[in-house]
Amino acid sequence: MTDRIRDYLARTAHDAPCLVMDLDRVRENYETFARAMPDTRVFYAIKANPAPEILALLADLGSCFDAASLREIEMAMQAGATADRISFSNTIKRERDIATAYRLGVRQYAFDCDAELEKIARSAPGSRVVCRLLCDGNGADWPLSKKFGCSAEMAARLMERAHALGLVAHGLAFHVGSQQPNPMMWDGALETCAELFRKLGERGIEMNLVNLGGGFPARYLRDVPEVDTYGQAINGSLKRHFGNRIPQTIIEPGRGMVGDAGAIRSEILLISQKDDNDPTRWVYLDIGKFGGLAETIDEAIRYPIRTDHDGDDLMPTILAGPTCDSVDVMYEKDPYLLPVSIEIGETVLIESTGAYTSTYAANGFNGFDPLKCVCV
């Protein structure tokens, strides 16, 4: 947690959970990505945290934006980004939203199947299209399923089809899984991209772009490599597989941009045990899965948790949320060790919660307000 967040929390009271974001840390993270990969354009994944202050800061710094919906496109433009700095990267789009984005000036669209390609051809004629490949997210804390992407063989056919439809067959995209701790996981996907570039080049289709996706991790409980390490690994793979014909590249950091720039202050509502002889206690917070901590599903993302009693004796603690839903339990399979001395009514700080919390929060489930986000 940064000093700016700590100072804000020390002088500000809230009667509900609150996410506090440090804009200086977001700026530092953007500059770190820019230095580590100077030949790669940054497209911030708006879905990670669309706070207007964050979008305005990044727009001012020169960032581009990865938008998953028409509303995210509008938010980026309201923050100062021009349409040429926005990619409509969701492969599942309403055709009328594609048409509206096209009228707004957006000219880059992602797809992974024939039907989506045909929508783009009809409603965004002449635009640049990027075909998303299936990719193994092995090792990622938040791996991706087969919901997005297609096989390499299908991608080659689709890009030929895009060319025939009058679209610009611009390039390929992939994603190695969110919170990817292995910098070498980009290598296999880049090898596949290079093979497709050569194959399609022989057919008269010269692609120009590789979208390296996201996957760059935030710091939670487990140590992860520095951004520079990822940059070196990816640049090495690009040289190895593309030789002297390295294409344009973009990255779409979300978690890596804002994850460690935020912390949530939460109140302990209840401490209990299920049996007088049970060595494990339950601690219920005023925030849970439905309040913004959805990534605790399967205990995938394990956030650092701080209390006013750190340093005291510890005991196993199951953490749960406040709602009347039995799945609203964050950590049960692998309970946290928290101080024995914590008490009802005290606060805990859940660190590195800047990404995928305020946007995952339910709007009014059980009558709880959405998670408030404050930028300092």
Q: Which band does the percent of strand residues land in? A: 15-25%
CATH top level label of the largest domain? Alpha Beta
Principal-axis shape: elongated
CATH superfamily placement of the largest domain: Alanine racemase
DSSP E strands, number: 16
What is the radius of gyration computed over CA atoms, rounded to a whole number of angstroms? 22 Å
Mean of the pLDDT scores?
96
Number of helical stretches of at least 4 residues: 10
Order of helices and strands: HEHEHEHEHEHEHEHEHEHEEEEEEE
Number of domains: 2
What does this structure look like?
The structure is a single chain. The chain has helices spanning 3-11, 23-36, 52-61, 70-78, 95-104, 114-123, 152-164, 186-202, 227-242, 255-258, and strands at residues 18-21, 40-45, 64-67, 86-88, 108-111, 128-132, 168-173, 209-211, 248-251, 262-272, 281-285, 305-306, 314-320, 329-339, 347-351, 372-375. 30% of the residues lie in helices and 22% in strands. It has two domains: 23-258, Alanine racemase (TIM Barrel); 260-375, Lyase, Ornithine Decarboxylase, Chain A, domain 1 (Beta Barrel). Helix 2 (23-36) runs parallel beside helix 9, helix 7 crosses helix 8 and helix 8 packs parallel to helix 9. With 376 residues, it is α/β, with parallel strands linked by helices. It is built from ten helices and 16 strands.
